[in-house]
Design brief:
The structure is a single chain. This protein has five helices and eleven strands. The chain has about 240 residues and is α+β, with helices and mostly antiparallel strands. It has one domain.
Length: about 240
């Protein structure tokens, strides 16, 4: 499998897609809600949509709502006890739209086994198809695969094992750390209202490592420099 460095049509992407085996890609609500906040995406890098129906409702086009922990439940629908979900829960991609997020205090990595490494929390009872890609630098992108929930009973979304990608792709390995995830609506979903296309609640790196933020690194270096200066004065 080769990295994506230029735009390709979804027809050609389908030829290189990794098949998602649904029997191994779903976990229960309790497991999903037990994840710590640190594993979730922290920053929106890019959000695009060309869907006129979606753009008519700006309440559903706030990409910042996808950051942090997942918070959608099946009660957030018309007729549910919590009512329809709104702008603070997630965002809709629309027809062919995409969302790119970044992990700032952690990074996605392979688990070295068949465990799921990346989880996309989707909103709504209607399963909707999406393409998922990951990147080290937000320039070279790698296909993780296409995914769609098997039915509307799986409210937590779906997951991906990236280890096969790491083993088969030149230039990356099991030690590669990915800071970026891009989710794209494939254009194969239903687009009839202002919640068109895949609706994203949250994105989590199930297999991840902590990465110090730049400010923390500078702080540690400063402490080191101060320590060296103190030693020199004492000598």
């Amino acid at each position: 499998m080769t990295p994506i460095t230029t735009f390709r049509s979804f027809k050609s992407l389908l030829l290189t897609a990794v098949t998602v085996t649904f029997g191994a890609t779903l976990f229960n609500v309790e497991s999903a809600n037990a994840l710590t906040g640190r594993v979730f995406a922290d920053e929106v890098v890019e959000y695009t949509t060309n869907d006129d129906l979606l753009l008519e409702n700006s309440l559903l086009t706030d990409p910042e709502a996808t950051l942090g922990r997942n918070d959608w439940t099946q009660e957030m629908v018309n007729g549910g006890s919590l009512g329809a979900w709104g702008q603070d829960i997630g965002t809709s991609l629309g027809n062919g739209g995409s969302l790119t997020v970044k992990f700032t205090n952690n990074a996605l990595k392979g688990s070295g086994n068949k465990d799921l490494d990346l989880w996309i929390y989707e909103i709504g009872k209607a399963p909707e198809e999406m393409l998922v890609e990951i990147s080290v630098d937000n320039e070279t992108w790698y296909d993780v695969g296409f995914g769609i929930r098997p039915d509307n009973t799986h409210q937590t979304g779906l997951g991906f094992d990236i280890d096969n990608l790491l083993m088969e792709t030149e230039g990356i390995d099991e030690n590669t750390l990915f800071r970026y995830v891009r989710v794209t609506d494939t254009g194969n979903n239903t687009y009839t209202n202002d919640k068109s296309g895949a609706d994203i609640d949250a994105i989590a790196a199930l297999s991840s490592v902590d990465v110090p933020e730049p400010a923390s690194i500078v702080g540690l270096l400063s402490l080191g420099i101060v320590g060296v200066s103190t030693l020199k004065r004492k000598q």
